[in-house]
Amino acid sequence: MMAQESTRLLLALETTCDETAAAVIDERLRVLGSVVASQEPLHAQFGGVVPEMASRAHVQRILPVIEQTLRKAQVKPSQLSAVAVAVMPGLAGSLLVGLAAAKALALALKVPLVGINHLFAHIYACRLAAGREVFPCVGYVVSGGHTCLYHCRSATEFELLGATVDDAAGEAFDKVASLLGLPFPGGPAISRVAQGGNPQAYRFPRPLLGEGLNFSFSGLKTAVRYAIGSPGQSRKQVCHQAEQLSPKQVADLAASFQQAVVDVLVDKAVAALEHTGLNRLCVGGGVAANRLFRSQLQQAVQQRGAELIIAPMELCTDNAVMGAIAWEYLRAGKTSSLDIDITPGVIR
Ligand code: KG4
Ligand code: ZN
Questions:
Q1: Which residues line ligand 1 (CB under 6 A)?
Q2: Confidence at residue 41, expressed as pLDDT on a 0 to 100 scale
Q3: Which range marks the domain in which residue 302 is found?
Q4: Which residues surround ligand 2, an ion (CB under 5 A)?
């Protein structure tokens, strides 16, 4: 799409984890250009994201990704009206690369800088997908790094209702997949293998089910480990045991684990709707790709007469388009000063 003379343009940057992304979005939330450079092949060999490698890869990619995005959008830097960047939460080294680039651009172009919360942006992806107002709603981020529920009163007022006290849901998928000898990222691999399995074959725990809005997945991961080997065995020994499992056993383990995670995820979403009295749920993050999760959630939300919005996959996984939330802050006059810092953790 060509840049329109009359609308202002925002450049959004995203470097919170292992994707280097940039996008140009106009004030009417139209996407003029978007680029996501994934580092997945780089980290796959280690079965998870290696923070130091991620920051170095961001350094190599950030300028080419910005240039490519501007080229796609057919926009010159001088046409930009604002620069947005995710400053929280995420890997410290990764966040710093995006923030340094955004500060330099904002300073050089003399335009406002907007530091945004990556998790709020994930929820805002639903606003973009819906093409209409979605607030107030319960916002739900289910990704590799985070599992968070928010009471979103408006596009700029989010209150944390609950979050994981240990592993994120996606992280649990990744760790269990690695235990079972399945490739990284583990979510898609587990759900693929689980198709041939019996979800009732193993009675795995549903941690914190019916107990408030926080999550805990690390015990569930350990339960899978103990289903394969014995408590005294090292991780290496358990992985070796897993290699001896039949395809049917692996499928049953994957299906039973997936069912346990989905049961908890759906239960908490319904509990958050109940707690807030709201009737709209907006879901973001990579785990939202999970078919079982989507269908079970749809059913549960529908049963309550509530509305479910899940952004399409390209907006669910990390991208810079969802940085369009910065327009809400710009409209509210909430910009950041050039000495803004990163905040790696989730603010409780
Ligand atoms: O949102 P995302 O792209 O990155 C983060 O910001 O974390 O999410 C990636 C996570 C990974 O943990 C991956 O295993 C998980 O999403 N994931 C899935 C599925 N597809 C991706 N988990 C379960 N089922 C899936 N189909
Ligand atoms: Zn994310």
A1: 17, 143-145, 170-171, 173-174, 185-188, 191, 285-287, 289-290, 317-318
A2: 86
A3: 133-315
A4: 143, 318
